[in-house]
Amino acid sequence: MADAKVIVYSTPTCPWCQMAKEFFDENKIPYEHKDVSVDKDAMNEMIKKSGQMGVPVLDINGKIIVGFDVEAIKKALGS
């Protein structure tokens, strides 16, 4: 799990985004955080990958998960 490439697209005011980041922190899974509220390139990247404007969008080894779905996250991490 710890060798997964994880990108979290989020905004500071999103509670589900915070929960996703806490999940990765608690499980010692490193991730790259992209704040789409201030980073227009990251926002465009997120929309291109997911087709969504809502956050969080998680990119785990190229698998896109929209929202905070623990089971989908665990599956994408291979656990």
From TrEMBL:
Gene3D superfamilies, A to Z: Glutaredoxin
Pfam families: Glutaredoxin
MF annotations from Gene Ontology: electron transfer activity
Protein name: NrdH-redoxin
GO biological process: cell redox homeostasis
InterPro entries registered for this protein in UniProt: GlrX_YruB, Glutaredoxin, Grx-like_ET, Thioredoxin-like_sf
CDD domains, per database record: NrdH (cd02976)
Domain spans labelled Glutaredoxin: 6-65
